[in-house]
Every structure is written in structure tokens, then in C-alpha cells.
Amino acid sequence: MIKILNNNNIIKFQQILKRNYSKKKNVDIDIYNNNNNNNNNTSIQYVDKEYESYKIHKPVFIREVLEILNPQPNKVYIDATFGMGGHTRGILETCKDCYVIAFDRDPKVFEMTKPLRSEFKDRLITINSTFSSMKSALKEKNLDHLKISGILYDFGVSSYQIDTADRGFSFKKELEGPLDMRMNQNSSQITAYDIINTFSEKDLRDIFFYYGEEKHTKNIANEILRKRQIEPIKNTNDLVKIIESSIPYPMALKTISRVFRSLRMFVNDELNEIKVGLTQGEELLEPNSPLLAISFHSIEDRIVKQFLNKYTTIDEPPFKFSPGYKSPIFPSKEELEWNPRSKSAILRTAIRTSNKPISSNFII
Fold this sequence. Notes:
seven-stranded mixed β-sheet
């Protein structure tokens, strides 16, 4: 794990928290109480304000996230998927005395967000880690004693990652890049190149079907095997051409998207990340605190839906739905005009109860 902030910064962060906790009483506040006009005004002003980072990546559901979290003084929140820091900025701007611990597995985002991290250095800790390792990462930083008042997950890949050619996430021909697709390019994990050039026909078909929900897998897998016998399949455009030669247009467009998505999800073990990350959220959250999860396709959303449905209906459930938030939330017309890439986003949320966590012996 890469240390983004040194020990002195973490100690300072802890000291500020301790000082503020001692000055003010902790009051249980209904997280959905919208009677605080100041907070509402701050939230509205924030979503109406454009930041430089929005040119690279706009935070999805920013208005709804801030409304549900309703950040309060001296409370600590986790942004499990920091990215360009849009949601984190929103939380810290909305409440001037709250704190955020932000996680991201991609070390490059911390270089790109130096101005944000510097601006909020006394109220923000960033940690280079997967969100499936939040508990151990907090313990390593001596932050595991903190009470967490809300957790946000924003699954998938960010705009900056998609639009950076050398990451290999995009199938656009003008963004040709290596078949990499690792969220953390410093890691030694498998790449899309390894999968495409070494996996069997059956394994390739399984990945395309189970991770991409692609039905037309046989022709694609066979053509991959045929091409790689001639020479290695090295870049994204090579793979796009293979799919185009296997599937007729216009069907090929959706197939290309599904194949690329399936490779990315397999490379980064995204489904397991989501399952483990959600259960860690259950263990970390304080009672009456919200868990929010943003998905971008049916596979991710299905995991979140199953998790929340089970964890709100069993005996002594660790979560409950708040009135008006049992159903998923979809982007408003206003958001779609502001951020067209939010079109496929789905937001689900629930509140942590005071019942004991069950993640250690409960399987999704």
C-alpha cells in the first residue's frame, strides 16, 4: 500500500478530530432531515458551481449524495472510490467541520488531485487501497477507532481513466492503447493482454458471458485464438477489429462495449471487490448512518440490490430502508443535461441499524 500522506499528516488529522469531539457534543441527527436551510443552500450552490476537475470527471448523483449523507460537524465519512474527488469535495464543501477518508486503488488519481488534497489537508485523508481492504487500511493508519457516519461507493471506471489511451479501457479507435485495463498499473496483476493472448476458448467465452452478459461469444473467442496464432493481439484497436469481423453491425457496437467491460471487470476482480466492500461498509458504519452505492450496469446493481434486500429483511437486520429510498434512484433530466455519462447510473441506499453486523457469517 502506497502512503499518500505521511504519519505527521495523519497524526494532525487525528488531533483535530479529537479536539473538535471534545468541544462539541455528539448529537444523533436524522440524516434525512432537510430542515437545515444553510446545508440545503450550500448543497445547491455546490452543484451549480463548476470546478476544474469537472472538465475531466463529473461526480454522478452529486445532489442526491449530499442530500442523503447530509454531512454534519465533527462526523467522519468514507468516500470508497475517490477518483477525481468530486464527491469528496461536495461533502467537505457542504459542511465546513466534517472529515473525509477517501480510498482509491489507482495511485495516479492522487497526483491529479493535489490541489484538492492540499485545500482540505486538515480534513481529508487519502489512502491508496481497494475498498475491499478498507478495514485493514484504516487499522494500518491507526484510524480504525473512528466512528464512520456514512460510506459512498461509486463503482466502475472514471471518465479520466476511459479517456486516457494508455490505460486501455476505451474501445474508441482514436484512443488506441495497450490491452492493459488495470486500475493500478503499478500492480503485478494480470492484464487484458494476458487474458486475450493466453486464455482458452472456454475461459474467454465465460468471461465475455458472465462479466459482460454477451451472448455471441463463440465466434469472438475462435477469432481471437486464430489471430493470436499468427501474432500477439497487442492493442485495443486490434481487439476491436477482431470483434467487428466476428459480429455484424450494428450489433457489433454493443458487443464491443460488453467485451471490453468484461475484460476490465475480470482484470480488476470488480465483482468480488463490490461484495467484500459492501460487507466491510456494514462493519464500519455507525448506527443511523447511510450506505450509498452507485452502479453503472445490471451486474453491479444486482449485487447491491441483493445485498440490501437480504440485509434489510433478515432477523435483526443490520440495515433498513428510509421512507422514500427503498427504490433505486435514476439520474434526473437536469443531471443528464449536465452530465450525459450519468445516463446508466443507478443509486441505492440504506441506513445502518444498531443490530450487530453479520458480514462475517453471511454470504451474498
